[in-house]
Design the sequence.
């Protein structure tokens, strides 16, 4: 029964996307996501760490609605930095993303995602569960030549307290082209498959698609050097080895500045030995840009 129900749901979603009016299709997505979304936003805090030999800041990690333990690090950072509770996040999963816990606390901002279905569903979910939220959801694909227009529009007089990016591809090139003057804190995913002591990124490709094969993003060292040149210091690497946090240098004295070489962590523990071997071998045959 459960398998047949999934098949029926997939059929309805496919049919609805193609033939139903947008309002009807978005309502179907809302109903489909309602129960899980409600469960996620009411989850209890988890403080499980994913690595050993952590930095001091990792003791403040926890997970509620972030993918890993980003919620706790975000909370800790903004206890030490004045803010207006405004964020921009690029790339989100419907039930887990870095700013969902901030929305629960009254923050607002922009959520940007290229998947139309995710955007339609989340628009209705936020209206239902957080009707006072002023958060805008934009269905856009991000490129290095549109990043500033999309992120900075309607923010002329605002400081972006927290900026999070996870687009599984051209992250390095997008960040390189982004005007960071009005951004105070950055969270970005790095590609731990590339290793600790290399400065690499994928070449810029407007049509890049994430295939879970290790070919995405940039190394931690590459991102750290880029953001250092743009006025930011590395202050946290979340224990899962997925995201790194950077603060504007004028706030750095509130935190311990980290070395990307010493604080690098791997996500390989999530994969089987066969998967690790497959991705490692695959990376040898792929083209990366040395920085």
Sequence:
């Amino acid at each position: 029964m459960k398998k047949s129900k999934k098949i029926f749901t997939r059929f309805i979603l496919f049919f609805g996307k193609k033939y139903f009016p947008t309002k009807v299709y978005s309502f179907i997505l809302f109903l489909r996501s309602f129960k899980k979304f409600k469960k996620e936003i009411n989850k209890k805090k988890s403080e499980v760490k994913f690595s050993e030999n952590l930095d001091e800041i990792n003791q403040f990690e926890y997970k509620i609605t972030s993918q890993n333990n980003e919620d706790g690090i975000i909370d800790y950072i903004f206890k030490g930095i004045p803010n207006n509770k405004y964020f921009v996040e690029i790339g989100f999963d419907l039930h887990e993303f870095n700013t969902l816990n901030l929305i629960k606390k009254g923050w607002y901002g922009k959520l940007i995602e290229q998947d139309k279905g995710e955007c339609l569903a989340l628009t209705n979910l936020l209206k239902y569960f957080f009707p006072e939220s002023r958060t805008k959801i934009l269905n856009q694909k991000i490129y290095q030549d549109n990043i500033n227009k999309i992120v900075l529009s309607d923010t002329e007089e605002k400081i972006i307290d927290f900026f999070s990016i996870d687009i599984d591809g051209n992250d390095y090139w997008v960040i390189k082209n982004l005007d960071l003057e009005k951004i105070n804190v950055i969270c970005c995913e790095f590609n731990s498959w590339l290793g600790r002591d290399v400065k690499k990124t994928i070449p810029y490709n407007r049509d890049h698609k994430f295939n879970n094969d290790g070919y995405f993003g940039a190394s931690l060292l590459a991102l750290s050097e880029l953001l250092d040149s743009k006025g930011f210091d590395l202050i946290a690497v979340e224990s899962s080895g997925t995201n790194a946090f950077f603060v504007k240098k004028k706030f750095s004295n509130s935190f311990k500045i980290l070395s990307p070489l010493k604080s690098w962590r791997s996500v390989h523990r999530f994969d089987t030995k066969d998967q690790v071997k497959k991705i490692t071998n695959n990376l040898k045959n792929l083209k990366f840009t040395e920085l």
About this structure: The domain at 45-290 is CATH 3.40.50.150 (Rossmann fold). The CA atoms of residues 1 and 7 lie 10 Å apart.
